Give the backbone structure.
Amino acid sequence: TMFRRGFVLFLPRLVGLLVVACCSMSIVYMLACTPKGDNQQLALPRVHSPTVKEGYEAILQEREEQHRNYIISLKRQIAQLKAELQGRTEQLKNMQNQYPDSLDIQLDHNKPEKAQANLLAFLRSQVDKAEVHSGVKLSTEYAAVPFESFTLQKVYQLETGLTRHPEEKPVRKDKRDELIEVIELAVGSLNKPDGVSKAKPRVYTASDFVEGIYRTEKNKGTLYELTFKGDARYQFKKIVLFRPFGPVMKVKNENVNMADTLINVIVPLAKRASKFRQFMQNFREMGIQQDGRIHLTVVYFGKEQMNEVKSILENTSKSANFKNFTFIQLNEEFSRGKGLDVGARFWKGNNVVLFFCDVDIYFTAEFLNSCRLNTQPGKKVFYPVLFSQYNPSIIYGHHDSIPSLEQQLIIKKETGFWRDFGFGMTCQYRSDFINIGGFDLDIKGWGGEDVHLYRKYLHSNLMVIRTPVRGLFHLWHEKQCLDELTPEQYKMCMQSKAMNEASHGQLGMLVFKQEIETHLHRQKLSSKKT
């Protein structure tokens, strides 16, 4: 408010002073160019003087030159004043745009140094208030602001807007320009000389960019975390930037070495041997062959199909020369929370990243890197939003055959949806899991235990990274709605099943299948008649 009053009072005074100055110079110019009165006539030579003509011409030429120089000087001064007025007006407009009334800072026009210091203090306070250096306590799971993830080509978004596309090339120009600016600024920061090393520095380009995540807290600013390739295979560069509703500020520039970071994948299981065989094919290719820094812990409930599961595990161990696995058998009723908790506490080695997983999950080697990069002991836990696959029989029903599993894993609105209501797949360091108290072991069966753990992290000072990821998929499987359910429970179960079967449009095509076939039949008949 103080700034706006000063701006309103100052600008009219400045304009008034300039107008008075211009009027004064115009009056001076008129007086200088007006012919003199009789009492102030020019001292011209006498008519009978032999030099009358030459002297008169010389005086006129001299006075004309003086007037011409005076006019040029006045024009130059007027142009300078106009330029200064325009520059000052633009400066004041920019200041008004940058420092709106809502900012609780004092901008003293008579002390620009103090105003600049106040502005910098405010911007840095925005960084402190946002979840940049540490997490903040949140009341519910709905209070967490999720990240969006992006690469050079695509943005993977939860807020799909009118397009309803879970992934897309940025359509809106402001979003496209924003991400390009951030990547370019990060590359410039990486290429800036540190002044310490004498070796020739590596030149980074946008092609070294791996992936980034960002989120906007509407009352603070936008946080960006960008990952670039490092100097070795398992080394990365991470740049953290923050836009506090103004210029982007570099928050952190650090080396991240993940060469020795082991991930312990914990899978609770009961029966489902065929699903486990499919899971181990994915685990072997992505975890063992491509990544190599991985351990598998299987917590098995009961004895039915146990030997078959152990045989699958042992065969994979022999064929892939893989020894980093643990098999734990529990003679009790299945409980996902109990299985994950037992598997996490069974580990006796150094602090390790835990990835809580299910057998109907498909992950890539890139996801395992994201799991490492978004966890930090005592600082961050990772809750990725996975992409849930629709029923392939419905999606590809009009095809001659259903594509292979790898060909089905495409992120499009016709093939699946972001499972933003699920919190079961998560990465965190074992120390954080133990310190937070682990799972609630009173919860039996499936469901509930994941939300309970998620809320524990939200209520702590740890930062929860919640973002859709392109390398984690929930594979479709038939959902059983048991006859023992009440009519209301059965209805809810069927609604959930429908949501997982296909998109709204695809289900609509099934509902109106008879009408569509009737229309096609009529078209064929009419074409035969013509």
